[in-house]
Amino acid sequence: MTWLITGGAGYIGAHVVRSMTGSGERVVVLDDLSTGIAERLPADVPLVRGSVSDRALLDRVLARHDITGVVHLAAKKQVGESVEKPLLYYRENVAGLTVLLEAVVAAGVRRLLFSSSAAVYGVPDVELVTEDTPCVPINPYGETKLAGEWLVRATGRAHALSTGCLRYFNVAGAATPELSDTGVFNVIPMFFDRLTRGEAPRIFGDDYLTPDGTCVRDYIHVADLADAHLALARRLAGPGTGDLTVNIGRGEGVSVRELADVVGEVSGLDRKPEVHPRRPGDAAKAVASAVRASEELGWTPRQGVREMVESAWEGWCLRHPEARGV
Fold first, then answer.
1. Nearest Cα to Cα of residue 305 among 264, 276, 263
2. How does pLDDT run along the chain (326 residues), one tens digit per residue?
3. For domain 2-170+219-248, which CATH number applies: 3.90.650.10, 3.40.50.720, 3.40.50.300, 3.30.230.10?
4. Which of 11, 89, 121, 141 is catalytic?
5. What is the pTM of this model?
6. Where are the domains of the chain?
């Protein structure tokens, strides 16, 4: 098989490329490089620069490289930006997916793996979030991911595609420093950024009904997440058609205060966090049930929160060498 990975030069995408090529899968990457970095990719992986909204380009790529399966990761993914620019998010995440699926069907490709998100659940009031927990997204980003799932499943049923949706929880860490996240949008790099500038990390709300009053989240190492993509891709490559939707998390909760403590220990920049008011829409607790991933994919996460923070710190210091001397 040959897999087209859209968004394969991004933070998560490059890890998926690494996992799949390291296991002998043939891969082609399509990325517009708006946030992706070409240097993240192995030299022998073909990179096509372009958008999933470009139907003519998709038709050429699918035919020229004899693509037999697609891993679709290309998307806008910042919650705050989605609230400010909902039209952009629906155009990129839903309309773009529509164009991709049209090309996939026309080319006779029969396998598609869709990158979804735990944002589809909204603010779940459950001990563990299962794949059957009601989906009630509270922002345009989550809405576009849920709409994407609907579109993928409907297309699969109508055109005999094998499809799968992976609902990521909180992704962190790096397989190597060079593949680390370059953005400052998630909590760990946000902590690093504050500490490197000599400022205290910020915690939003400490009066939740949790053991220490701060929000509890499920963090997954990006390399483990990449291996989950490989497991699902191989499942889809098997005989038959159908759809599988799977949570990707560790099934263990870590509070924001606990995470701040680990960040302080690993970085050596141990400052007492500042507590700020709650942010609208933050759930007290969001922890995945990882049972289906284990049973259906034979996948279990291998790395814990400390490994995530340590690998993320190495990547941060690669790009901010001054951080070691703060």
1. 263
2. 999 999 999 999 999 999 999 999 999 999 999 999 999 999 999 999 999 999 999 999 999 999 999 999 999 999 999 999 999 999 999 999 999 999 999 999 999 999 999 999 999 999 999 999 999 999 999 999 999 999 999 999 999 999 999 999 999 999 999 999 998 989 999 999 999 999 999 999 999 999 999 999 999 999 999 999 999 999 999 987 789 999 999 999 999 999 999 999 999 998 999 999 998 888 999 999 999 999 999 999 999 999 999 999 999 999 999 888 66
3. 3.40.50.720
4. 141
5. 0.96
6. 2-170+219-248, 172-217+251-325
Q: 């099934």: which residue's tokens? A: 251
Q: How far apart are CA 189 and CA 318, in angstroms?
A: 13
Question: In whole angstroms, what is the distance from residue 326 CA to residue 324 CA?
Answer: 6
Rounded Cα gap, residues 168 and 88, in angstroms: 22
CB atoms within 10 A of CB 173: 29
Q: How many helices (H) and strands (E) does the chain have?
A: 11, 14
Task: Respond yes or no: is residue 141 known to be catalytic.
Answer: yes
